[in-house]
Write a structure and sequence with these properties.
This protein is mainly α and about 350 residues long. It folds into three domains: about 120 residues, Tetratricopeptide repeat domain (Serine Threonine Protein Phosphatase 5, Tetratricopeptide repeat, Alpha Horseshoe); about 120 residues, Tetratricopeptide repeat domain (Serine Threonine Protein Phosphatase 5, Tetratricopeptide repeat, Alpha Horseshoe), CATH 1.25.40.10; about 90 residues, Serine Threonine Protein Phosphatase 5, Tetratricopeptide repeat, CATH 1.25.40.10. The chain is globular, with a radius of gyration of 24 Å.
Length: about 350
Amino acid sequence: MWLLSLALGATPADAQAACKGGSAKACVEAGVAYEGGYDVPVDLKRAADLYKEACGMGLPSGCTSFAWLAEHGKGMKADVKGAMALYEQACEDEDPRACNNLARLAAGSDDARARTYYEKACSGGYKDACPKLGMLWEFGRGGPKDPGRAYAIYRASCDDHFANGCTAVGHAMRDGVGIAPDPLGAAGHFDIGCRHGDPLGCSLLGDMHKDGEGVRQDDALAVQLYTKACDGGALDGCTSLGTMALMGRGTALDERKALALFQRTCDAGHPRGCSNLGYLYEHGKAVAKDPSRAWSLYDTGCRGGHPMGCTNLGLLTARGEGTDKDVPEARTYFQQACTLGDRNGCELGEKAW
C-alpha cells in the first residue's frame, strides 16, 4: 500500500489523468509509481517530470522529490546545487523531508546548520530526523552537549513507534547516555528496533549476545542477528558477520566469506571493514600476504576512526612492514588509537621500539 489513493483502487494512469487536470498531489502519486515501479515500469525521467510539475504547482513534497532525483542524478544530470535550492524552498514551506535532506547534506561540514534543520524536520513530524538530532546533542556537535536532552529525543522517537528511535534508546541505556546504564533494557530496545525494521538494532543486539552483555551469551544467535542486519543493509552487521566467519564462532570457519564481507563493507566506506580486510592481507588469510596493501587498508580504517586500524597501522610502521620504518610516526598512530579508546594503542605508544 504505497499511496492511499492507489491503494483504494486508483491506478498510475488515473493519477496521471488527475495530474493533467491540475492535481499536484496526483502528480506526486504518479511520480512515486514511476520511481518505484509500482504497477508501471520504472521510468526515472518520467518520475522527475511529474515531480517537477507538482513542484511548479506549488506542492512542497513535489519539489523535495524532484530535488532528491536531481541530487543523485536519477532521471537527469546530477545537480546538487539546484537540489539544495529546492530543498531550502520546500523546507521553508514546511516540508520536513526537505529539512531532513538539508541537514543530511550539512552534517559533518556544518553541524550547527545540520542541528537547525534536523530540529525542524523532527518537530515537523519526519521521525527519521529525530535520532540524528539526538546524536548531535549527545556528542555536542554543532552546539551544546546535553546527554539528557539526547535521551529525551530518543525516548520520544521510540514512544512514537519509530524503530530507529528505539535502537537509539538501547544505545543510550547500554552506554549510560542521559540515563543510568541498563544492559537488559538496552537489549530489549535493540530487539524492538530490530523486530520493527531497523537493521542496526539487529546488529547491536547481536553484539550483546556475542559478548553475553545483559543477555545470554549465544554465538549462533548473534550470527542470525548479524545476518538479518547485513541483509537489511547495516554495514556494521556485515562486518561483524565476517568476523564471526573468520573466527568460526556460531558458524563454520570460512575465511573466504570473511574476505567477501570485509571487501564489501570497506568498499562501502565502513572503517572497521577496511581494518579487518587489512588484517587478512597482513596475515595472508584467504589472500596472499601483502603488507603494503594491509598498511593502506589500516590507514583507511584509522582515518575513518577505527581504533584497531590505527593500532595495526602503528605496528606496521614501527616494524617497517608495508612502509618505511618510522617510529615517531608510528607513535602518532598509537596515540590516535589510544584517543579512540584502544588501550593496546596506549601501551604500544609507551614501548621502546
